[in-house]
Hints:
The structure holds two protein chains of two kinds.
Chain A: H1 2-37, E1 40-41, E2 52-53, H2 56-62, H3 65-98, H4 103-115, H5 118-129, H6 138-145, H7 158-186, H8 190-198, H9 203-231, H10 235-241, H11 245-248, H12 253-262, H13 269-297
Antiparallel strand pairs in A: 1-2
Chain B: E1 3-12, E2 23-33, E3 38-42, H1 49-57, E4 64-69, E5 72-73, E6 84-87, H2 99-109, H3 118-131, H4 147-159, E7 165-169, H5 177-194, E8 197-202, H6 205-211, E9 214-219, E10 222-227, H7 229-234, H8 239-244, E11 251-258, E12 261-264, E13 267-274, H9 277-283, H10 302-311, E14 317-324, E15 329-331, E16 337-346, E17 350-356, E18 365-370, E19 381-386, E20 391-395, E21 401-402, E22 404-408
Parallel strand pairs in B: 3-8, 3-9, 6-7, 7-8
Antiparallel strand pairs in B: 1-2, 1-4, 4-5, 9-10, 11-12, 11-14, 12-13, 13-22, 14-20, 15-19, 16-17, 16-19, 17-18, 20-21
Helix pairs in contact in B: 2-3, 2-4, 3-4
Amino acid sequence: MKKKLRESSLKGWLYLLPAILFLGFFMVYPLIDVFIYSFEEGYNFASQTYFGTGIYNYSYILHDPYFLQAVKNTFILVAVTVPLSTGIALLISVGLNSITALRNFLQTIYFLPYVTNTLAVGLVFMILFKKTAYSDGLINLLINWFGGSSVDFIEGPYWAKMFVLCFYTIWIVMPFKILILTSALSSINQDYYNAARVDGTSQFRIFRKITLPMISPMIFYLVITGFIGAFKAYSDAVALFGTDLNAAKMNTIVGYVYDMLYGDSGGYPSYASAAAVILFAIVLTITCINLLIGKKKVHY
Amino acid sequence: MEVILQNLTKKFPGRGRKNREEVVAVNDFNFEIPDGSLIGLLGPSGCGKSTTLHLISGLMKPTGGKIFFGEDDVTELPPENRGIGLVFQNYALYPHLTVKQNILFPLENLKGKDRLPRQKMLEKVREAAKLVQIDGLMERKPGELSGGQQQRVAIARALVKMPRVLLLDEPLSNLDARLRLQTREEIRRIQQETGITTIFVTHDQEEAMSISDQIVVMKEGVVQQTGKPQEVYDNPRNLFVAKFLGNPQINVFHAKIKGRRLYIGEDAVLNIRRISQEDVFRKDGSGKNALEKNDLRKDTSDAARLDDALTGWDAPVKEVYAGIRPEGFVPKADGPFFCELKGVEVMGRDISVVSANKASLSPTVRAIVSTENMADMGGTKAGFTLLSHKVFLFDKETEERIYFDAGAVG
C-alpha cells in the first residue's frame, strides 16, 4: 500500500515536471537574476561584466527625474482608474442584470473593447483627441460647441494628457470587469431577493446589504488584479503618446524599465533591474494591504 | 387570519417552439383556511403546490381568481403589504449576516411610524429567537449552523414581524430523517404557540398527515381532496389520493363485482352492496364531519345514481380497481383471500408480510399485521380475510371511488 502511494506520487511529479521546468527557466530564474542585476553596478550584457556591487543602482534611479515622473504618473493612473473602472463596471453590470430586453446585445457591445487591439484603440483615441493642423479633433469640436476653448490632449498640458490616459485605461479594462460582475450578479440565488421583497426591503438597501456582500469576493478579485494591472501599465501610454514617453512626460514605471533596457548604447540593465525590483516591492505592498482590508470586508 | 382562495388559477405561457402549450399550474383552486390552523399542501412534484404558496405570498400574480386575508382582498397587493412571513426551501438566510442580523433584517426595513426604536427591535429579535430556541446562537453566521438550526433561524426571521399568515415552502426537505421528525413537531409547537395561520408545502404525505389540521391533496394543478388528514386517509375520493396517502402504499388489484360479490382473481373476498356517499359519512358516527363541507356529496344526486345504473353497477359483471390498505389484511389460514407468500419482514412492533398476487398491479403485495396474528401464517400460501373499511373500490375509467357497504363472505 505504502509503495503504491509513493509510486503514484512519483507519477504525479512526472506529470508536473514539464510545467515546473518551464516555470523554473522562464520565471523563477529570471526573477532571481533581476534581483542580482539590481545590485551589480554597470552590468553589460555583451561582455557580461560589472564594476562592483552595492546599492548605487537604486540611489541613481531614485534621483532620476524621469523615474520620479514615471512613479508619479503610475500612481495617479492607479488611483484614478482602479476605483473608477470598478465602480462604473458595477453600475453597468447591475443595470444589465436588471433588464431583459437588449441584454445580450448590450453585453456584446460592452465587451467589444476587450477584443480590440490596444494600438487600434489608441489610434481611434488619437483621432478623437488629437489637435492637428487641419482639425481640432472630435472632442475639441464638442468642447467648442459648449463654448470652451480647444485643448491639445495629446501634446498639450499635463492634466489633459493624464485625462486621456486615464480615460483610455478605464475604457480598456472595463469589459473584463463587466463580464466578471454580470456573471457574479446572475449567480446570486433569486431566493435572497424574494426573501428581501417579502420583507419589504428598499432597492437601495437590497443593493447595499445583499447584492454587494454577495459579490464582494468578485469585486475584491477585480480590485487586486486592477491594481496590479494598472501598476504594470505601459502599452496604453505608448499607443497614445508614442515611444518617447520621457519627452512627453507620460512615462510609467514599466515604460522606464523598458527604456533603460533598450535605450541607446546597449541600455542599462542594472538600472532597469533596480526599477523593476522597486515596482515589485510597490505592487507587493499594495496587494498585502488589499488582502488585509479584504479580510474584514469580503464575505466568502 | 382566515385565508380564502377563490377560483385561484395560474397559467404559465408556453415557451419556445417545441413547448408552445401553456401550462396550468393551478386550476380553479377554492379553499377556506380557518384562522389559526395549520394547512398542508400535499402532492407530487409539479402538482402546483409551490405555485399556490407563491400566489398566496404575492411573489407571483394569479392569472385568475382572488385571495382574501380575512375581509381584505390581497390579490393585487405586493408581498410586502400582505403581512406574510415566508420560509424558503433553502432558507435563503443571508450568509454574510449573523443570526441576530438575519432576524433583525425585516424589522430594519420598516419605515416611518412602523419603525421601532432599536431597543425594542432587539427585544423582538430575542423573543423570536427564544420561540424557536436558537437564542444561544445569535452571533453565529448561517454557515456555522446545522440544517435544523438554519431552519429555525429562517422561521424566526419570518415570525419576527408577527405576520398574519406564515408560509413554509418544503420546510423539512433539506433535513435528515431524524431532524425532520423533530423539526416537524417543532413547527407544530411554534404554530400553536403563536396561533398564526400557517400553510406549508410538502411532497411527503407522512409529514403533512402528522402535523396538519387539514391537508389539501393536489395533482396537476387540480385539488383532489381536502380535509382532516385521518378523514382523507380513511375516505379517499379517488385512486390517486388513495395511492398518495399511506406508507407503505395501498395495494391495488384488478377486481370484479359479480352478483354483489367482490372478486380478486378467483377469490370472492367480500359481499358488497352499493350505498351512497352520504351513508358512508353518516356511518362515521360523529354525525357531521369536515368532509361534508366539500363537494363530495354532489355526485350522489339522482342523476348520478341513474348514471351508475347505465354504466353498469347493476350489470352482471363490473371491472373495478380494489385498493386494500396494508393494515386491512388479517391472516386467516382458510382465506377467503389467498396470495403467494414471498417473505416476512419483522419490524419489531408489527410484521410486514410480502406476497404476490396475479391480480395485483404491482409485483408485491404488502400487508402489515400484528405479531399475535402471525400464528395462522405458514407454507407457501398466505390466507387473509379483509377488513372491509380498509378496502376501497374505484372505477376503472374515471378512477373515482365507488362506495359500498360490505359484509364478510359467508
